[in-house]
Fold:
Amino acid sequence: MSSPGLLLLLLLLATPPPLQPSSLAPPDTPEGKATIMGLILSALERATSFLKKRLPEINLDGVVGFRVLEVQLKGVQEKWARDPQLQRLSLRVGKLAEKLAPLLHRSIFYLRLSDPKYLREFQPTIQPGFWKLPHAWTSTDASMVYPTFEPDSFSEERSDSCLVQLLGTGTDNSQPCRLSDSCRTLMTKPGCSGYCLSHQLLFFLSARMKGCTGGLFRQSQHYMNLFCANMMDLNQRAEAIGYAYPTRDIFMENIMFCGISGFLDFYKLQWLEAILNWQKPQEGCFGRPAAEDEELSKAIQRQQHVLRRVKRREKQFTDGCSSHNTAMAVAALGGFLYVLAEYPPANGELWPSTLTPRSC
Structure:
């Protein structure tokens, strides 16, 4: 079990370098916006080539990230179709979506061979139509950040069991949107951080995607506000210590889940630049950093802090590529692309400064 207070101690007592502004071109001009979108598309094209090469070995979590990306690309196409100045970029988006669709379809065949039980339980999350883009945008509320974190007792098995109940894919042929008392307790437990926190959000986000609105799910927006406020806090802490490797996976997962939950302030230009820099240029994947970046990473890894988990089905490749890292990265990057299409940036920001947190 990881030590509960050690992460905060490491993050709060570290002396971080001053946060540097992004060196990307400002997105508040047509040229700057096109440059940034081109960089994102290039990264996504390389990642999709990685998916094609490693498709038989990609796990279900990896496929989820690319399925979310597919939805984001379609959303971008709809926005750009009305802008003649973006025709060339729109064609690239269309070609990428066309390349991705058959790969996602074929992935189910390989998942059926490699992990049939997990596929049966979570197949809804990789089916077309499950993931939906936000209808409205909001921002996080810093006043909702927990004063302290509880001891880390995250169990991926228990979390998965609650998601199976919610999805209605268990062996008991139950209906979706079911919620046991133990899952209610687990998924609303205050003080979580790391993957415990992101899986709490995933639970309520999945409920929204399934259309669950009764009982506890009447309060879904409150819990999503709460969880994303704390996920924002953890991402800012990860930025403050220079995005040490063990924090990168959860950092990108937080952007993916809170972004598709409608929290626009996760799309920060300096965070986009960081993610783009983590891609392995030849392989197209995301994963273990180069050797020169590993000393700090190893030191923090040895502490077993709360931004880590043992992903039971994580797929690490011998070249340092990670199926889960890559999935989180492409869904985060797809979110940045969609936001750039949805909101013409102003003053160098990727979202309007007038947004206020959404009420419950």
